[in-house]
Structures are given as structure tokens and as C-alpha cells.
Design brief:
The chain has ten helices and 16 strands. It has about 325 residues and is an alpha/beta fold. Strands 3, 5, 6, 7, 8, 15 and 16 form a seven-stranded mixed sheet that branches. The chain has a six-stranded parallel sheet with strand order 11-10-9-12-13-14, sandwiched between helices.
């Protein structure tokens, strides 16, 4: 079978399409014939936790496909089922998935849309529901609202009945996101959005912050937070891993700060919330209340072009790689 690998050095990341043996599922695993897989910015960033050490490795983090074989002990999914989920080495014709991570694909959802769901929407679910405890009519602030996680958080927040302010450096992307319910678009890449947020919220501030950007906007986020507000730290595309904390505001406003990451989670930790996600959110996807924004679908051999499109920041939502027929 064919599989995409990335050769990582201290200064470069080279993509290679290799011919490798088809994997066999071990205990608790399923083997997928993949039909689509989605790109995620972090897997291509040099020095990121996913690729911190030099060397070559298979790449891809999430995908959608048909179950073709079951490992020992797997009873919750059948051969022939259409599933999506977090899936290591997803940029391959076949890949293994932890059966506990498999999410059934409703008949109404195409392969390309399904591949765009597992990672960013489960991150948004962790952010807004499991840790953020978002309630209807609360305000959410999303830094980098046009990113994959940003768009997923916007759509999920609106499905939960919340109001959303979002920052982006692209006025064009913000205008498009108004169609998806963005209440307060703020066109900026800088830490200068406090006044706009306060105006939008009537001076009250926001209840939940989704920080996709990093340390450069962290202090400004705290300034925008309401009493008993919650801030989820998702990523740091700005490369700034430190930010100033106003301890007085943290104390007086009873703020909550938390991280959203899979880096230190065990497979059991990652799998635990999947049934809740299926129960709470899959009906919204099945009915079309939430529909992933797929910016572009690229052929399997065009991963380099897809990566370049992502790194140029020209996309809105997800970029998907079509695999097979």
C-alpha cells in the first residue's frame, strides 16, 4: 500500500510517498481502508511535540474509512462499517485505529466531510463542553476563528446557543464566517481587541475564551474575561510559549485557565469522552445543524500542494486529502 511519510530534520520537513506493507490490527484495533483524511497545522510544524525529534515517520492524524478487519477483542464495530476518528498514519491507503476512538458516520455525511470532523470538533467539545461548561446565551471569544479549531468552536458554540466574537487578520474570512453565525467579527492579528469585545458584550466580557494563537494574545484575553470566565489554551502558532498573567484579575474574577492537548493523555484518556461526543454532537452532524467547512479536497498524491496551501494560510476551515476511489 502507499503511505505518506515525513522526514524531519532540525531545519526541514520533507514529504515522501512510500510503498509499505499493509498493517495488521492488534488487540483492540481496527483496520481501515481510508477514503479521506484531513490536514492539521501542528503535524507540519518543525519542533512541534508531534515531531520534536529528527527522523522519518508516517503522518496523518484523522480520517474516515471502511472497516476491513478487526483485532482481537473488538466487538463494538463490524467489518464494513463506515467510521471516522483520530487515526495515526491517516495519510495512507490503510491505517489502524483504536476501536474505542471509532465514530460511526451517519449516512448523510460524505467521506470528505467525515474526515474533517474527528480532531477539531472533539477539541471544540473538550473546550466548550467538558472543560468550558458553556451555557446558552454566554459569550465566547475565539482567537484565530478562521482556523480549523476556530471554525469548529464557532459552529459548536452556536449549536449550543452561545454568542461568539472572533479575531482574524482576514476581513474576507470574517465576512464568510458571519454566514455561520459569527456575532462579532474583529479584524486583527494583534493583542488590541479588548475594546471591541467589551463593546460587543455590553461591557460584561466573555465567558469562555478559545486561544488558538498563543502567548502574544494571552494577557489581552484575560482582560476580556467576565466574572467566573474560563480560558482554554489550544495552540501557539505565534511561537510564544509564555504570557503575562494578571494575578489580581485571576483572583478577583475567579477565572479558570485550562489546557486542551492530547500530548500526555493515554489511549484510555483519549477514548473516554468519545461516547459522550457521539451522544451529544453526532445528531447535530447527522441533521446538518453542524456541517464541516471543507476549504479544499486534494488528490492523494497532492499532499505537498495541500500543505503549502495550509502554510500560506489561504484556507478557511479544513483541507482534506481524498484517498482511493
Amino acid at each position: 500500500m502507499q503511505s505518506w511519510w515525513m522526514q524531519v530534520s532540525d531545519h526541514d520537513a520533507v514529504l515522501e510517498l512510500r510503498e509499505v506493507a499493509r498493517p495488521e490490527p492488534g488487540p483492540g484495533q481496527i483496520l481501515l481502508r481510508l477514503h479521506a483524511a484531513a490536514l492539521n497545522r501542528g503535524e507540519f510544524i518543525l519542533g512541534h511535540g508531534l515531531h520534536a525529534k529528527p527522523g522519518a515517520r508516517q503522518i496523518g492524524l484523522e480520517g474516515a474509512g471502511e472497516v476491513v478487519a478487526l483485532g482481537a477483542g473488538v466487538t463494538q464495530v463490524n467489518v464494513g462499517a463506515r467510521v471516522m476518528g483520530r487515526c495515526p498514519a491517516a495519510f495512507s491507503e490503510y491505517a489502524l485505529m483504536d476501536a474505542r476512538e471509532a465514530i460511526p458516520i451517519p449516512d448523510s455525511i460524505a467521506w470528505e466531510d467525515a474526515a474533517a470532523i474527528p480532531l477539531v470538533y472533539q477539541v471544540a467539545y473538550d473546550l466548550l463542553v467538558l472543560q468550558g461548561h458553556l451555557a446558552a446565551d454566554e459569550w465566547v471569544l475565539i482567537n484565530g476563528v478562521s482556523s480549523g479549531v476556530g471554525v469548529a468552536s464557532l459552529q459548536m458554540a452556536k449549536a449550543l446557543g452561545a454568542k461568539v466574537a472572533g479575531t482574524s487578520g482576514s476581513a474576507e474570512k470574517l465576512a464568510r464566517l458571519r454566514e455561520y453565525g459569527l456575532d462579532a467579527p474583529i479584524c486583527t492579528r494583534d493583542a488590541d481587541f479588548h475594546d471591541a469585545v467589551m463593546k460587543a458584550t455590553g461591557g460584561a466580557g466573555v465567558n469562555v475564551v478559545v486561544n488558538n494563537v498563543g502567548g502574544s494574545v494571552f494577557a489581552e484575553d484575560l482582560r476580556c474575561m467576565a466574572f467566573e470566565a474560563r480560558l482554554g489554551m489550544v495552540g501557539y502558532v505565534d511561537g510564544q510559549l509564555k504570557g503575562e498573567i494578571d494575578i489580581e484579575a485571576l483572583h478577583a474574577k475567579r477565572l479558570t485557565l485550562f489546557g486542551v492537548s492530547n500530548k500526555m493523555r493515554t489511549p484510555a484518556h483519549r477514548a473516554k469522552p468519545v461516547p459522550d461526543f457521539i451522544r451529544d454532537m453526532l445528531p447535530a452532524f447527522a441533521s446538518g445543524r453542524i456541517k464541516p467547512i471543507v476549504d479544499r479536497v486534494c488528490a492523494f498524491g497532492q499532499l505537498a500542494e495541500a500543505r503549502e496551501h495550509m502554510q500560506a494560510d489561504r484556507h478557511l476551515g479544513k483541507i482534506v486529502l481524498a484517498i482511493g476511489a
